[in-house]
Amino acid sequence: MEASKTHRAGFVTLAGRTNVGKSTLLNRLVGQKVAIVSPRPQTTRRRIVGIVNEPDAQILLVDTPGFHEPRSRLNQRMVETARRSLSESEVVLVVIEAGSQLLEGDRALLDEVARSGHPLVIALNKIDKMPREHLIAVVAELGQTLPSAEIVPISALKRENLPELMRVIKPLLPESPPLMPQDEYTDQTERMIAAEVVREKIFLAMRQEIPFSTAVEVEQFAEVPERELTRISAAIIVERDSHKGMMIGARGQQLKLIGTKARLELERILGRHIFLELNVRVEKGWIDDPRRLKELGF
Ligand code: GDP
Ligand code: MG
Predict the structure, then answer these.
(1) Distance between Cα 180 and ligand 1 center (Å)
(2) pLDDT tens digits for 91-110?
(3) How remote is the CA of residue 64 from the centroid of ligand 2, in Å?
(4) Is pLDDT of 41 > 80?
(5) Which residues have CB under 8 Å from 231's CB, separation 6+?
(6) Residue with the nearest Cα to atom 19 of ligand 1?
(7) Cα angle vertex 174, ends 12, 36, to 5°?
(8) How far is Cα 258 from Cα 256, in angstroms, rounded to an integer?
(9) Residue 45: pLDDT over 50
(10) Cα–Cα distance between 151 and 138 in angstroms, integer?
(11) Which of 13, 45, 117, 286 could form a disulfide bond with 89, CB atoms 3.0-4.6 angstroms apart?
(12) Paired strand residues for 230
């Protein structure tokens, strides 16, 4: 009874190789779509905060771009962002996609986090598609190399064992009143969410390499009260003329599909009618241009 009077709050940074399910887990814990998800690596580009509000705790979950080889300046910014939020958080939640053993990338990250001295929780994700004997082997290996870490096997996708994960995280946070308004679930503006949702549909629709050099910039976001509508106009910024052609597709079919999917999802998230206009623009070199990256929020 005593413990329930204490309120705790703090930042918990999600870390882990790309594609292990960090953004999926964030959305599940928050109970809202906060971060976009795709089967491709490097979908997440910026630091996104999802807010979990419970009577006894407010957990500010920070989704980060994964750590990876920085090839472009955009990539460099992504890795810097991930490092910075690690250093600023109370608890680090490392997500590992469990195969039959740990990968080198997982070990390097766990080493880095362990050295930082932050309390460490390891979520072993995707247990829904993992043979039991692999699970047991990986838990044993982790327990041996990181005896002080909490290890929680989960399936973010199937919502398995997520309450247990919360139960483990909460006591690691400092006593504190809520740090953000308790009726909010993210630090992103609706404008940012709109750009991200369009980007997600591009990741899902386009061939391998194109999404990585594509950005979305919302140019207009306006309420039309008399029609109970929000009018959003966004530019899809690509690196090459050939990418522009593919993004638009024959008779504009591809762009139309991306636009329809993004609009439907945005209407669900924002809870109102949306008019979404997309256009595609070529900006050679945006991905390495410091000024442009800054304008785009990186
Ligand atoms: P991130 O790069 O770490 O943010 O990973 P995402 O959240 O974008 O997820 C990458 C892919 O893994 C997506 O296709 C997800 O649907 C999938 N995924 C995430 N969690 C699970 C899980 O628990 N089980 C399975 N089978 N797939 C998952
Ligand atoms: Mg992600």
Answers:
(1) 27
(2) 999 999 877 677 888 888 88
(3) 7
(4) yes
(5) 220, 221, 222, 223, 224, 274, 275, 277
(6) 21
(7) 15
(8) 5
(9) yes
(10) 10
(11) 13
(12) 223, 274
Q: 24 alpha carbon to ligand 1 midpoint, in Å?
A: 6
CA 139, chain centre distance (Å): 25
CB-count burial class (<10 Å; 0-12, 13-18, 19+) for 55: exposed
Protein residue closest via CA to atom 8 of ligand 1: 37
Can you tell me whether residue 46 is helix, strand or coil? coil
pLDDT at 100 (0 to 100): 66
Say which amino acid occupies 284: K
Q: Give the tokens for residue 158.
A: 């199937």
Which residues' Cβ are closer than 6 Å to ligand 1? 16, 18-24, 37-39, 43-44, 66, 125-126, 128-129, 155-157
Strands 229-238 vs 215-224: parallel, antiparallel or unpaired: antiparallel
- Tell me which residue has tokens 């001295």: 117
3-state secondary structure of 162: helix
Provide the pairing of β-strand 120-125 with 150-153: parallel
Q: Helix 104-116 crosses helix 73-88 at what angle (to 10 degrees)? A: 40
CA of 85 to the centre of ligand 1 (A): 21
Q: What distances in angstroms separate CA 59 from CA 8, 32, 124, one per listed residue?
A: 8, 14, 20
Q: How many CB atoms neighbour CB 81 within 10 A?
A: 18
